Amino acid sequence: MSRITVIVDGVSYTDEVEPRTLLVHYLRETVGKTGTVVGCDTSNCGACTVHLDGTSVKSCNVLAVQADGHEVTTIEGLSENGELHPVQKAFHECHALQCGYCTPGMIMQACDVLKNNPNPSEQEIREGLEGNLCRCTGYHNIVKAVQQAAGELSSQAVSS
Amino acid sequence: MSSLSQRPADAVVGQAIPHESATLHVTGAALYTDDLVGRTAGVLHAWPVQSPHARATVTALRVEAAYDVGGVVRVLTAADVPGLNDAGVKGDEPLFPDEACYVGQAVCWVLGETLEAARVGAAAVEVDYAPLPAIITVREAIAADAFQGGQPTLARGDVESGLAAATTVFAGEIDIAGQEHFYLETHASIALVDEAGQVFVQSSTQHPSETQSIVAQVLARPSNAVTVQCLRMGGGFGGKEMQPHGLAAVAALGATLTGRPVRIRLNRTQDMTMTGKRHGFHAQWRVGFDADARLVALDATLTSDGGWSLDLSEPVLARALCHIDNAYWIPDVRVNGRIARTNKTSQTAFRGFGGPQGMLVIEDILGRCAPLLGIDPAELRRRNFYVEGQATPYGQRVRHPERLVHAWDDLAARADLGRRREEVAVFNAEHPHAKRGLAITPVKFGISFNFTTFNQAGALVHVYTDGSVLINHGGTEMGQGLHTKMLQVAATRLGLPLERVRLAPTRTDKVPNTSATAASSGADLNGGAVKHACEQITGRLAEVAASGLGIDPSQVTFADGLVAGGGDSLTWEQVVALAYAQRVQLWASGFYRTEGLQWDSTAMQGSPFKYFAYGVAACEVEVDGFTGAYRTLRVDIVHDVGDSLSPLVDIGQIEGGFVQGAGWLTLEDLRWDESDGPTRGRLATQSASTYKLPSLSEMPEVFTVSLLEHAHEDGVVYGSKAVGEPPLMLAFSVREALRQAAAAFGPDGCAVHLATPATPEAVWWAIESARSQPVEASLPHRAEAAGVTIDSGDPSAQDEHEPDQPEPDAPPIAPESEQLADSGSPR
């Protein structure tokens, strides 16, 4: 067993984990962050996407011990003071979800795309989310939501 | 207009609102079945021991070594089953089998304190197998005469004389691929037993009542001792209509034996190797056209790949036969159906339920034959549409066929098809190594369960003394927005703002004896039941309000939270308080059954559908001549949802259904090991790394969806139509566009066969076939290149594609084979 200390959604956790424990299992089973889900087990679908030190990772493809001393943000830590993050708000308003299972990962990845490229073209959004699968929506509204969020975020940036 | 379909002004139904759980989804708060593990104390985890053989007798099962593994609590075997060792409704799905019938089938289960303990324990179980010969492909099953279940024939008129009178008769075959559901949430169940022995199963199931029934059957308990709840599913698509039952039963068995909660969650490999998929089909056909390229006769034999057990294969086959006409009038028809028994997963419901496979047969025929008839495929399709007064081969009058024409013409205008066809021709003339195709295809899809009995639903509506409302209904939520629509229906009928109505999870102890949330019928059936319950409540409240307002109850209206009449009004809350004080019942159970249906599944005749849903799609693709790789440039859709209950939800269903259909037809390539090697029968595509799902890279560059206007559907809840399945078949347009683009590499008028799925590889072979065709080939040669033979008219000449005809003693689909598990003895 290895002792790790990880900040998850702003709270520090210290736990003994088996060295081969995947980050997603640590988050779900030890920390209780069930908002991050397991879809494919093979790092194809992106449903388990979280931020590790602010950058998106597929948490089924990262060991929990690799997060030792680092900061993880999950979908449950994205909203601030009860206010939905603009990407969350846009996914809600644009009906960019159906069964919702891919939604947390899709939102976390979209945040990462917009952080690196605040004004992406439609093509850049598609490429940025290519590693996240959705079986319900056909993606159309997901792209629209990211476009709406980009607009919202850039207008926030202008006004602040 | 019926009172069921009549919609008040400013109704909550029809408003474009987000999904009712959207806030929970975007914050990660929404719970799926497996999220409950951490909220449940003392959970045991289950792991299957899976057969490595496609078919083998289990000659010995030694479980002792598993108990030597730390953390293993219990091994579940057939000897533990107190009731029926069967996970299905037909008695052919042993839960703990003594003969393994496919690679991956669970022969026993190990329960452990941790998933890892269960996994290691399962690896320690020793199983002796005596391998038996296995059948893997449909063609092998046909050769071996290995069929299961009924072999129905759907017929009208005299197909032989119809073909004899035809100007041209073509014959051919097609192999239609299956499809993995790949719901993002794999199968999951958690079972608990309470202090009084009540079994409570949380399951990711589209059919809680049947899950309940199977759990009860396995445990030898009455249904009232088993409760099943489904919070929501992370996708279902039909894959959770029957497949959850056995898993729930194993969890429940484990819970009753250990007294502890038991969780089963399949990992992706287990899910893909253990659970059923869309049926692949093989079809042989002969088709006749008259001199005007009108369909005059169709003779076909469809063989579905049923896998190891019947499951839902019979009704899937029935729907395939009932949809072989798609949108087209065919006077003389004979379609035979049979179900191959193969040593694979038990193929099951998948969005469209056989309809897509049946429709693909005729769409493939039209696409392949249009060049041989010398007619534009769009014109060939349009010319053969049903018109008012005509009936389907099973005898149901086609209502509103003009809607398809409206949708077709509307789409042609919206998508500017005339101009774009010319542009495609110019592009193709200018580009020797890239070609474009632009195709338009229709959808007509029958709505209702074929089996009339299933077309019923229940609901429970509670009004509390503070005026707040809680609704329950028998349908399950898998992302399709059913709960959203049910909230809108209740708010509309009660005249309340949406916020006053809340919905509780689907449970068998709230609404019993429910049908599967399937056949696109969830909103039609449960909406009718919710509305019925609300009407009883407003009926009683109208009496209360009428006496308060001094008017007749018939004058009372419910709108915007006010109960009004005679120029005066009371608030909803005031009336509810008055009613409670007067001891008037404030809750009601609702019931709905679809009127006007009748179906004889043995004769394959009747009017099984309440109505038809229509849609039209146009798709333009560009194909690369060197590789067969392609891009979808543009997709336009006009689809008929009646008067939409919830437009955002409906458009989302159309977009998602189309993309899922395009996945089935172009990307998703299930491969099974068909070799004679030791891994014969193994699913070679066991994960998303080898099974290609639609991703953002395959999205059409332009994608528009419009709802058909003036589409009110009389006799259905608030004038709406079902939307779950029909849009999947809009994706035929992609396949036909690819076919046309591939053909454009060949001489004018060349016909090509395109395999399913039309992967780039398959498209490349179609291009090769087109390129190799000489410019001035004879019609028989051109046909042959497309895998089509031209009937000589000589009845003594046996055509290689002649559809097999059933033996005289072939069993029909008997109605009793469609009965629910506990309403008749299993066959």
TrEMBL record, chain A:
PANTHER family: OXIDOREDUCTASE WITH IRON-SULFUR SUBUNIT. This is Carbon-monoxide dehydrogenase small subunit. One of its GO terms (molecular function) is metal ion binding. It holds the Pfam family Fer2_2. Residues 2-78 form the 2Fe-2S ferredoxin-type domain. Signal peptide: none annotated. InterPro entries: 2Fe-2S-bd, 2Fe-2S-bd_dom_sf, 2Fe-2S_ferredoxin-like_sf, 2Fe-2S_ferredoxin-type, Beta-grasp_dom_sf, Diverse_Oxidoreductases. It comes from the Bacteria. Keywords: 2Fe-2S, Iron, Iron-sulfur, Metal-binding, Oxidoreductase.
Automatic annotation (TrEMBL), chain B:
InterPro entries: Ald_Oxase/Xan_DH_a/b, Ald_Oxase/Xan_DH_a/b_sf, Ald_Oxase/xanthine_DH-like, AldOxase/xan_DH_MoCoBD1, AldOxase/xan_DH_MoCoBD2, AldOxase/xan_DH_Mopterin-bd_sf, Xanthine_DH_Mopterin-bd_su. Pfam families: Ald_Xan_dh_C, MoCoBD_1, MoCoBD_2. Keywords: 2Fe-2S, Iron, Iron-sulfur, Metal-binding, Oxidoreductase. Residues 27-133 form the Aldehyde oxidase/xanthine dehydrogenase a/b hammerhead domain. The keyword Signal does not apply. It comes from the Bacteria. One of its GO terms (molecular function) is 2 iron, 2 sulfur cluster binding. SMART domains: Ald_Xan_dh_C (SM01008). The keyword Lipid biosynthesis does not apply. Its cofactor is Mo-molybdopterin; [2Fe-2S] cluster; Mo-molybdopterin cytosine dinucleotide; FAD. Residues 776-827 are annotated as: Disordered. Belongs to the xanthine dehydrogenase family. NCBIfam families: xanthine_xdhB. This is Xanthine dehydrogenase molybdenum binding subunit apoprotein. It comes from Humibacillus xanthopallidus.
